[in-house]
């Protein structure tokens, strides 16, 4: 609802969304500056990294303290009850209470209490307090006009719905000239391209999704597989990056195995095959969203990212839902760091309980423990670097210990 005229002084201090650059929080800047591995020889000149949806998932208030005080004073004097900021905060509070009220309370009495011992009538606020505590992870962003805090949950609910549309079947049987090992080697090469061009992780995940969805519908020969992979990165870069690499850069990294006409023709083929609908849900975005529920350290989040990125090369994880994969990677990382597992906030925002993730978590731990292909070095080498806290060198959990930990966590969630 547009603000009344008498709030002009308060609203006028907000930057114009169409002209000013997006506000990034200090944590995101620190993450990008510490973990970005620049390549001086990159044909793109190593542009600065940008996290898509960062303004929704990880952005915090970064306004100057003086600016906040002046805005608060002006809003308190002139802004009525229906002002924009208060409206956003009120809507979030109402939406959260509505969703929380649907969750049955474990503290609710099961037996009748005598009248003389019964508690006094409770107000609606007291009833909400009896429910499991669920944190509003978007509350801290309500004063940031670029965070879209009011719509963040709706956006990720929409992405959860789109997962059904973009499910991937087992397509290797319809590819007579391509094997699982060939796909794994190609993804390993795509990880190196993402590092060399300093692309975002969202670009890498989307490129792998584009490649898989294209191979579901089109039978391809092995000599065109690298062309499909490089073209998928080109399309994902245009979708995600602020400064995507150009066509000549991709011809260069393919060692001139293809010409410009072939690359452009493949780009048209992929887009037309997918009907130009390339906003595919990826696990990386869900992982960043779920990590906010745990207030996990950057090292724990990086460990979950490492586990999640390893699955890109494994064909067995192609059919896994992005949100479920992200939740499983985060739960395994929490167990490996001996941290508390699934809290009510995580269960609410992810939509999964511990029982739903047990099989996936054990499968991921098996991947960390046993499946080491010497030809696939890009991901482990990348996360062995100190800027990624060398999480690839962390020993995996013992399978029996993990099983026992998951069983105990499952019993706690049911009790």
From TrEMBL:
Residue ranges occupied by any Cyclin C-terminal domain in the UniProt entry: 281-397
Keyword Transport appears in the UniProt entry: no
Domain Cyclin-like: 188-272, 285-366
Residue ranges, compositional bias (Basic and acidic residues): 109-119
Organism superkingdom: Eukaryota
Annotated Gene3D superfamilies: Cyclin-like
Xref: InterPro entries: Cyclin, Cyclin-like_dom, Cyclin-like_sf, Cyclin_A/B-like, Cyclin_C-dom, Cyclin_N, Cyclins_cyclin-box
Alphabetized UniProt keyword annotations: Cell cycle, Cell division, Cyclin
Listed PROSITE patterns: CYCLINS (PS00292)
UniProt family annotation: Belongs to the cyclin family.
Name the record gives this protein: G2/mitotic-specific cyclin-B3
Upper taxonomic lineage: Eukaryota, Metazoa, Chordata, Craniata, Vertebrata
């Amino acid at each position: 609802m547009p603000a009344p005229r008498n709030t002009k002084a308060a609203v006028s201090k907000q930057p114009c969304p169409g002209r000013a650059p997006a506000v990034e929080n200090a944590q995101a800047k620190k993450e990008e500056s510490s973990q970005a591995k620049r390549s001086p020889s990159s044909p793109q000149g190593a542009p600065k990294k940008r996290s898509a949806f960062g303004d929704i998932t990880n952005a915090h208030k970064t306004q100057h303290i003086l600016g906040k005080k002046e805005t608060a004073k002006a809003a308190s004097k002139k802004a009525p009850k229906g002002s924009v900021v208060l409206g956003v905060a009120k809507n979030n509070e109402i939406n959260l209470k509505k969703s929380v009220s649907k969750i049955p309370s474990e503290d609710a009495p099961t037996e009748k209490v005598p009248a003389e011992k019964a508690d006094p009538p409770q107000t609606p606020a007291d009833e909400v307090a009896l429910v499991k505590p669920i944190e509003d992870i978007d509350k801290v962003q309500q004063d940031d006009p670029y965070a879209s805090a009011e719509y963040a949950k709706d956006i990720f609910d929409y992405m959860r719905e789109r997962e059904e549309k973009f499910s991937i079947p087992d397509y290797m049987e319809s590819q007579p000239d391509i094997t699982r090992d060939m796909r794994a080697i190609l993804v390993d090469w795509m990880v190196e391209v993402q590092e060399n061009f300093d692309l975002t992780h969202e670009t890498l995940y989307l490129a792998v999704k584009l490649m898989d969805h294209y191979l579901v519908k089109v039978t391809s020969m092995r000599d065109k597989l690298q062309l499909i992979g490089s073209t998928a990165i080109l399309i994902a870069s245009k979708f995600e990056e602020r400064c995507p690499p150009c066509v000549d850069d991709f011809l260069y990294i393919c060692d001139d195995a293809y010409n410009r006409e072939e690359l452009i023709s493949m780009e048209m083929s992929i887009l037309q095959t997918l009907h130009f609908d390339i906003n595919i849900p990826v696990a990386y975005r869900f992982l960043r969203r779920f990590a906010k529920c745990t207030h996990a350290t950057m090292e724990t989040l990086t460990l979950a990212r490492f586990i999640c990125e390893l699955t890109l090369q494994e064909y067995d994880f192609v059919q896994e839902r992005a949100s479920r994969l992200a939740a499983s990677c985060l739960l395994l990382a929490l167990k490996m760091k001996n941290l508390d597992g699934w809290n009510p906030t995580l269960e609410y925002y992810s939509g999964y309980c511990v029982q739903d993730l047990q099989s996936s978590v054990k499968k991921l731990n098996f991947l960390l423990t046993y499946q080491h292909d010497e030809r696939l070095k890009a991901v482990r080498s990348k996360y062995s670097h100190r800027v990624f806290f060398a999480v690839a060198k962390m020993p995996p959990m013992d399978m029996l210990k993990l099983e026992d930990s998951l069983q105990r966590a499952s019993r706690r969630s049911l009790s």
